[in-house]
Amino acid sequence: MSFVITALIMFIFWILLSGEFSFILILSGVFSSLLVSYMSHDLLIGEGNIKLGIKRTFRFIRYLPWLFWQIVMANLDLVYRTLHPKMPIHPKIIKFKNDLNTDLGMVILANSITLTPGTITIEVNENEFIVHTLSEESAQSLISGEMQARVKKIEGKYNV
Amino acid sequence: MFEIAAIVIVLGAILVLYRALKGPRVYDRALAVNIIGTKTVILLALIGFIYERPHFLDIALVYALINFIATIAFLKYMETGGLD
Amino acid sequence: MKEHIIVRVIASILIPFIQLYALYVIAHGEIGPGGGFQGGVIFSASIILYVLAFGMEEARSRISQKMSDLLSSTGALIFAIIGLLCILAGGSYLEYDQLPLGTPKLASHLGIYGIEIGIGITVAAVLITIFFEMAGRKDD
Amino acid sequence: MDIQAIITGILLALGCFFIVVSSIGIVRFPDFYSRMHPAGKSDTLGQLLVLSGLMIYEGFSLVSVKLLIIIVFIFIANPTVTHALAKAAYVSGLKPWKKEEGKND
């Protein structure tokens, strides 16, 4: 199953890259996507706890606009702090508990943290996130756990 | 329009180059080099538009890829003293 | 990097796309930038990323020493055979348009395509071998 | 002037602004960890804005699809690299800078 899905995704990717529809190139596209999915179909669709599913993909797409808005806010905040002559930054390191079940969820949360207001993920393990924050407000908003709740929603109920 | 953007990005890269030269730690240098790499990708895309040669985008994509792998390799070496 | 969850997951998502991109570069060697050598290098970069994220043993279980040795000579063999076929068809070495494949234009098209594939396989296999040998060596 | 060129210009200007600010931040901030903030964020948003400006200029074609692929790739790769750098520095024992203690770097 994962073989077929990977091959399909790869073939779509090939068409997008190539844009040529001569016989030889389409044939080599089919062959290449089969070859790639033979070599690494267990990587993209994932075994065990980095599993991508259709429902998760849709929930992830619904999460993106909120993330994008947060990124814009983050950058405006950062521009202010960078260009202010006194540089109003109060860096510190905070830790908070990791409630997520899947590796993919942790990755999404960690990269979202890195992209949003004044925070950078330093370390992720099963128990906790260690995060470097630039200001007091961003530390507070992270501890309140809104982002984690949203990512948990992407993960869904089942624990794969 | 594209020319101006390209020049501004080169100026940004020069600013970051100062950090790459000054350090003070090896991680600062790695960070600066990685950022210059990202700017190079954008610059390649812009150059492709200035000279109207869309094939430059392929090169930009490859550069983004190699830049990513190079930084990861460097970090792994710094952390474990080996690559495997 | 066993404990690097993020690098591991991102690498496993990106590697198939990198490999497909490498094959795309090899196949479009005639009409775009790139070709066999560049495609081979990108392909080996994907294997290097795999080693960095998952470790040497995992990578060895996917591509054994024997496999990469075999592939590096297969690529060179493809190159040589296409060249020799050109001689057999009455041209000089690598004179593709003498090949009996329809029109001379199509023949040279297919000939170059075959050569690019051969070069790509060899370059990828040799670079993978070099990386494995160098990364496996410990500092004395 | 058509509307496409105007939108492209605005997006390019914004993107260049974020890129320059991130460069200034990297030069100005006091320690390694705070320098990662402009690196991880402004650069990602800057490339997003510049490349989507180019996409709008191009219209819908294979070139803009390729630009989209580059955007997504950098969008995934950049935070990953930032995190890996931060982790490497943290494991090696680099202490973050605090305002009260003054400079230690």
Mind explaining what this structure looks like?
The complex is a heterotetramer of chains A (160), B (84), C (140) and D (105). Chain A is 62% helix and 11% strand. With 160 residues, chain A is mostly helical. In chain A, helix 3 packs antiparallel against helix 6. The longest helix of chain A has 30 residues. Chain A starts with a helix and ends in a 5-residue tail after the last helix. In chain A, 39% of the residues are buried. With 84 residues, chain B is mainly alpha-helical. Chain B has one domain. Chain B contains three helices and no strands. Chain B is flat. Chain B starts with a helix and ends with a helix. The mean pLDDT of chain B is 85. Chain D has four helices and no strands. In chain D, helix 1 runs antiparallel to helix 3, helix 2 runs antiparallel to helix 4 and helix 3 runs antiparallel to helix 4. The C terminus of chain D is likely disordered. Classes of the chains: A mainly alpha (160), B mainly alpha (84), C mainly alpha (140), D mainly alpha (105). The interface between B and D is large, with 41 and 46 residues.
Task: Estimate what percentage of residues of chain D fall within beta strands.
Answer: under 5%
Percent of residues in helices of chain B comes to over 70%
Structural class of chain D: mainly alpha
Largest interface: B-D, 41 and 46 residues
Question: How do you describe this structure in short?
Answer:
The complex is a heterotetramer of chains A (160), B (84), C (140) and D (105). Chain B has 84 residues and is mainly alpha-helical.
Salient structural properties:
heterotetramer, C: 140 residues, mainly alpha, D: 105 residues, 4 helices, 0% strand, elongated, disordered C terminus
Describe the SSE topology:
The complex is a heterotetramer of chains A (160), B (84), C (140) and D (105).
Chain A: H1 2-18, H2 23-44, H3 54-83, E1 92-97, H4 103-115, E2 119-124, E3 128-133, H5 136-143, H6 146-155
Helix pairs in contact in A: 1-2, 3-6, 4-6
Chain B: H1 2-22, H2 26-50, H3 56-80
Helix pairs in contact in B: 1-2, 2-3
Chain D: H1 3-28, H2 32-40, H3 42-58, H4 62-91
